[in-house]
Design goal:
The complex is a heterodimer of chains A (about 900) and B (about 130). By secondary structure, chain A is mainly α. Chain A has 35 helices and nine strands. In chain A, strand 8 and strand 9 form a beta hairpin. In chain A, helix 4 crosses helix 15 and helix 8 packs across helix 18. The longest helix of chain A is centred in the C-terminal third of the chain and has 76 residues. Chain A is rod-shaped and about 175 Å long. Chain B contains five helices and five strands; from the N terminus they run E-H-E-H-E-H-E-H-E-H. Chain B has one domain: Rossmann fold, CATH 3.40.50. By secondary structure, chain B is an alpha/beta fold. The radius of gyration of chain B is 13 Å and the shape is globular. The chains are: A mainly alpha (about 900), B alpha/beta (about 130). Chains A and B meet through helix 30 of A and helix 1 of B.
């Protein structure tokens, strides 16, 4: 015999094994290994077996024992849905993938304009609806434990061998821990749960093998072969159960609806789907699995009814049959199968529900009350995980309390049917949302509320039994004593099976009010857009579009706006709009005001008519498709592109024209400069030549000149020739300097010696003397530069002072200093200085200061400037000193690199 | 009475040469190196001939010419311009301003003297 402790140990080992599988799968997924398995249609199909819970494992036999072949309906519904995958599931999966839908609540809220109200409504309903289902799992695990306990202790079946409330509590705690560890271990909130999926696949195999093993044991071990078993079935009452058409249709419909709407089914069907093609394979593989699961249900039920004592719980035949035959190992295997069914269901269901609760209830509230911390991503993730864990706790607690309230004695199948009834209420809104563009948010809300209220009143509350949630009087006389409000005979319709009654009323009134409210309400623009996208999913979306469902609507507008306005402008506009709506981040909510502002913004780019047509489509629903709108947007973007290209070209042409104009001005200016230069040269050459010619003719022709006159005239000719020669020398010098052809001759010496030589040279040629004021100590600076050229500059400046200083006692002050490796020499005379107007011109060629006479050609300072530039220095007029002052500044050491030739035209 | 010429020329050597040449012809030569006072001096002196350089410190020869011609008293005064800038543009400006004769430097002495003779001869003929 297997002891309870052994059983628990085996369970723990099994769980640890599952953990290992899940962990390995997640590791492999992260590394990208084993995709052939992780993303295979086989795993996808097996993960769908999450549909088969403890209800299927244990309850189906009980169902068969109680109601005959009717149990088939809960397999039939899903099989029909799977086989007909092309119509509904393919659409759902495509929508789910292209809109990155995270749950059934997300899908419905997203379809109806991202309505938070709907999301909360669906989430709440799902939590309430699934609660009995979780209770069912708790009950089955508790029951199976009690069977083992009674077998161990030899207690008569039927009595309570263990404290079931306590056992259920610990099972709930275990399942909570298990789910938290499994589902919220890693922080990847939006990723798919590869580990969970693979663990579910393993559990699917375990429960199938366990059930098959029991079935084989029963058929071949107990009944004595297929023929015997069939004969036994024929003999039993089960073979003669009447098939009630109404119940069959209602239950099949219910199972089909639940298969689509159950949060955990939606999770594995849509959210965890890796490849739409898997659906195609699952469409035949999953019904096959269901068939295998149901293969031995009837034989087990029949043999169980036959062999086991009267009063045995038929829900536990799968366990009690092997136990009663002393097959403890088989019983253990069967127990593991049931445990697998229960745990996998609870894990996925609570995961799916906790995602919904945290995404649609906790996070919006948390974000609304804690805006300031939203930017810190770590914080949000922490909150998400925490809220999910708390949600798991809440959901399993609800299940536990339901189990306690309902007394834990109901048939598993009956409890399951209640859950099915609850989640099936999503069906009208779901199917309407993906097939009917006219469906509106108000319609969905109305339908859901009506259906759910009816479900609570006709299925959930009565399930606690008369006198528990609803008083016996209510059952008898109706709510508030109104006869047609009796929970099992609404509107006075009697004689219907309670389940059929509840399903028919809740679903039909749900659908009716959904359609009516949709017809009489007006959808918001976003609903229109979303509706078009969901209904025409195959026209508008590729399988993997990078959208997040939560902001899909605004995203859409954004994409359109970007195509028309250009990305930065559109983003700036959306940001500004978001600020207007006082949203601290993300896209603005698509309020009518925002849409109107967007229309205005678009009108500026594409014209009012087009913009209005586009927005009218969003608001008023013309027959233009979103694709058409996007095409228009693309065309406009192209036109804008062309026009901006033209603009760029015309700007380029204007630029070129301006450049040419500048170049022309420059050339004209240069041409004038050349003319005036030639004119200057002509003047400077002709002037001395006039004297030379005149006096030489006088000397030649004039008679009776005295010797003094002859000598005088000859010396004039002589000095004018020298003047000419000097002029030519200067011109050549300047030309060489300006063209950069000069070779600098680096020498070393002190500034003092250089000034000595310059003063001597200048003084020798001077017509009048100038007092030179020097500070010889400060001149003791070592120079490494072309000293001859620098000396030429000094001589020029000293000579200028000698020639042009207007003072009666001309004086020239020379001061030198060394600053940061730069020699600075000031030469300041005590004259009247140069008029401000002329200061800019003095360094130009042939510029002579007006009113100062003299025979110079006006090249001296021009040459000085060229030389100093070659020596990498500067020469400037000193405006702030009395008299005429020049400041020369040049590096103490001339660096080796050759200075570039002066380029006359800086820009062509 | 010897004939009177006012010579406005800032180049001392050229002025000396002209003074020598005209002096030998019997002219009384009054030399000015600055253009600024030239018009004033000429008004006072009322010479038989004016010789003008173009590039002068103070005031250019063209300006002096225009001012003199603007005065009816000097409308017929023979004015000989000498310039070292040989462009035709300068000649045109001078013609427009009413110059009597325009000569480019360097000139031959004989050429200059004959120009002076021509100008004064016609002047005397008129008088």
């Amino acid at each position: 015999m297997v002891s309870l402790n052994q059983l628990i140990a085996v369970c723990l080992l099994y769980v640890i094994g599952l953990f290992a599988v899940a962990f390995a799968a997640e590791r492999a997924a992260v590394r990208g290994h084993g995709n052939w398995l992780l993303r295979s249609p086989l795993v996808y199909t097996l993960s769908l077996s999450i549909y088969c819970t403890a209800w299927t494992f244990y309850g189906a036999v009980g169902y068969a024992a109680r109601s005959g072949l009717e149990f088939v309906t809960i397999y039939l519904g899903p099989s029909i849905v799977m086989i007909g995958w092309w119509w509904i599931l393919r659409r759902l999966v495509r929508i789910g993938r292209s809109h990155r839908v995270t749950s059934v609540a997300d899908l419905i809220s997203s379809r109806y304009g991202k309505s938070n109200l709907l999301a909360i409504l669906v989430t709440t309903m799902a939590v309430i609806g699934v609660t009995p289902y979780i209770a069912l799992q708790l009950q089955s695990v508790t029951l199976s434990l009690s069977i083992f306990a009674s077998a161990e202790n030899g207690v008569v079946p039927g009595a309570d061998p263990i404290n079931s409330a306590q056992a259920a509590f610990w099972v709930a705690v275990g399942l909570t821990l298990f789910t938290v560890l499994f589902g919220t271990r890693n922080l990847n909130v939006n990723e798919r749960h590869h580990g969970v999926v693979i663990a579910i696949a393993v559990e699917a195999v375990v429960k199938l093998l366990a059930l098959l093993a029991v079935g084989i044991f029963v058929v071949w071990g107990l009944a004595g072969g297929i023929d015997e078993a069939l004969a036994q079935i024929d003999r039993s009452a089960l073979g003669h159960w009447q098939v009630e058409g109404g119940r069959w249709v209602a239950l099949t419909l219910l199972a089909a609806a639940a298969f689509i709407c159950l949060p955990r089914m939606f999770q594995v069907l849509v959210v965890e789907n890796d490849d739409e093609r898997h659906l195609q394979i699952a469409s035949w593989a999953f019904p096959l699995y269901l068939m295998l699961m149901s293969l031995f249900v009837v034989p087990i039920a029949v043999v169980g009814l036959d062999l086991l004592p009267e009063g045995s719980n038929p829900d536990l035949f799968v366990l009690s049959l092997p136990l009663s035959q002393g097959q403890s190992n088989l019983a253990m295997f069967a127990f593991l199968g049931g445990f697998s069914s229960a745990t996998s269901m609870v894990i996925v269901a609570t995961l799916a529900l906790s995602t919904m609760v945290s995404n649609h209830i906790v996070m919006p509230i948390w974000l609304a009350y804690g805006q300031n911390t939203v930017q810190q991503s770590g914080d949000v993730r922490h909150v998400v995980i925490l809220s999910r864990r708390l949600s798991i706790l809440l959901i399993i607690s609800l299940g536990y309390f339901y189990y306690r309230l309902s007394g834990g004695g109901g048939a598993l199948a009956a409890i399951g049917t209640i859950s099915f009834g609850g989640v099936a209420q999503f069906l009208p809104a779901l199917l309407g949302g993906i097939f009917w563009r006219g469906a509106t948010r108000i319609g969905a809300v109305t339908g859901l509320c009506v259906g759910f209220a009816l479900w609570i009143f006709t299925m959930l509350l009565p399930s606690f039994g008369p006198g528990a949630a609803l008083s016996a009087a209510t059952f008898e006389q109706g709510l508030f004593g109104i006869a047609w409000l009796r929970p099992e005979a609404l509107f006075g319709v009697r004689g219907l099976d309670p389940t059929v009654h509840a399903v028919i009323w809740s679903l039909s009134l749900n659908t009716l009010s959904f359609i009516l409210a949709s017809l009489f309400s007006f959808p918001s623009p976003v609903e229109r857009l979303q509706g078009a996208q969901f209904v025409n999913i195959f026209d508008h979306s590729s399988p993997a579009r990078g959208w997040t469902a939560s902001v899909a609507a605004s995203e859409d507008l954004m994409i359109m706006a970007q195509r028309i306005l250009g990305a930065p402008e559109a983003q700036a506009f959306f940001r500004a709009q978001a600020r207007l709506q006082e949203k601290s981040e993300g896209l603005p909510e698509p309020t009518p005001r925002f849409v109107q502002a967007l229309e205005r913004e678009l009108a500026a780019s594409v014209g009012a008519a087009t913009a209005h047509a586009m927005v009218a489509q969003l608001v008023g629903g013309a027959s233009v498709s979103v694709q058409d709108l996007l095409a228009v947007a693309d065309e406009s973007a192209q036109m804008l592109e062309y026009s901006s290209q033209l603009e760029i070209k015309s700007r380029a042409l204007t630029d070129t024209a301006a450049k040419l104009r500048r170049a022309n001005e420059k050339l004209t200016h240069l041409s004038h400069q050349k003319d005036s230069f030639l004119s200057q040269i002509s003047h400077e050459l002709r002037t001395p030549m006039t004297s030379i010619r005149s006096f030489s003719e006088i000397l030649r022709d004039a008679k009776g000149l005295n010797p003094e006159e002859k000598t005088r005239y000859a010396s004039i000719i002589h000095s004018e020739t020298i003047r000419l020669t000097r002029l030519l020398d200067d011109l050549l010098d300047l030309s060489v300097l300006e063209n950069g052809e000069v070779t600098l001759n680096r020498q070393s010496g002190t500034l003092q010696e250089l000034l000595d030589r310059a003063i001597t040279t200048a003084g020798a040629a001077a017509t009048r003397s100038v007092v030179i004021d020097r500070d010889r100590n400060s001149e003791n600076i070592q120079l490494e530069t072309d000293l001859d050229r620098l000396g030429q500059v000094f001589i020029n400046l000293i000579t200028n002072a000698q020639k042009y200083c207007g003072a009666d006692q001309p004086e020239l002050k020379i001061r030198a200093r060394l600053i940061d490796g730069c020699v600075e020499v000031d030469m300041i005379d005590n004259g009247t200085g140069i008029e401000p107007a002329s200061r800019d011109l003095i360094f130009e060629k042939f510029s002579r200061v007006p009113g100062q006479g003299g025979e110079g050609a006006g090249l001296g300072l021009a040459i000085c400037r060229e030389i100093i530039t070659r020596l990498q220095g500067t020469i400037n007029y000193m405006p702030d000193v009395p008299g005429t002052g020049f400041r020369i500044r040049l590096p103490q050491t001339h660096s080796v690199q050759e200075t570039k030739p002066k380029i006359l035209m800086d820009q062509a | 009475m010897s004939k009177h010429v006012v010579l406005v020329e800032d180049e001392t050597n050229i002025a000396e040469a002209i003074r020598f040449l005209l002096g030998r012809e019997g002219w009384r030569v009054q030399t000015l190196a600055n253009g600024a006072t030239a018009v004033e001096v000429i008004r006072k002196a009322v010479p038989d001939l004016v010789m003008l350089d173009v590039m002068l410190p103070g005031k250019s020869g063209f300006e002096i010419l225009k001012e003199l011609r603007a005065d009816t008293a000097f409308a017929d005064l023979p004015i000989l311009m000498l310039t070292a800038r040989g462009q035709s543009r300068d000649r045109d400006i001078a013609q427009d301003a009413g110059v009597s004769r325009f000569m480019t430097k360097p000139f031959s002495n004989e050429e200059m003297l004959s120009a002076v003779r021509d100008l004064t001869a016609s002047g005397t003929a008129d008088a």
